[in-house]
Design a protein that fits this description.
Length: about 140
């Protein structure tokens, strides 16, 4: 996948797409609870095409809390102790977990694994710090 259009076609085949724009695709990632009776949790991830200094990048981002509803220092400490990829940023009123990848020469596994790690990390952070399933 060396082009944005190729990545979008891959995402369309493999994920539950909830919204598509020229430079952005939103997908819903599904998680089952540990118990059979648990409701399924979901996480919305935004995959966006970004251009930096003439080079195309893919940014994976997912909100997991409203800034005013959590202790940001505790969230950042948790991320620092538990995550492999990505980091937290404030975007508007939301805390967002995100990671970026260069689009040039991007293979499917180089996209899928970071997407799963970003969405999964955000899902755990959301559950831990908000107790809900809002995003």
């Amino acid at each position: 996948m060396a082009a944005w259009a190729d990545l979008v076609r891959f995402i369309d085949r493999e994920y539950d797409v909830t919204r598509r724009e020229a430079d952005e695709v939103r997908v819903r990632i599904h998680y089952s609870g540990e118990d059979v009776d648990d409701d399924e949790r979901t996480q919305i991830a935004v995959v966006a095409r970004e251009e930096v200094d003439g080079q195309e990048w893919v940014q994976i981002a997912t909100p997991f809390a409203r800034v005013e509803e959590v202790d940001v220092a505790r969230v950042l400490a948790s991320i620092g102790a538990t995550t492999v990829v990505g980091g937290a940023v404030i975007m508007g009123e939301y805390l967002v977990f995100r990671h970026s990848l260069p689009l040039r020469n991007l293979d499917a596994n180089e996209f899928v694994e970071p997407l799963e790690l970003v969405a999964g990390s955000a899902e755990l952070l959301e559950e831990q710090f908000t107790g809900g399933d809002y995003y």
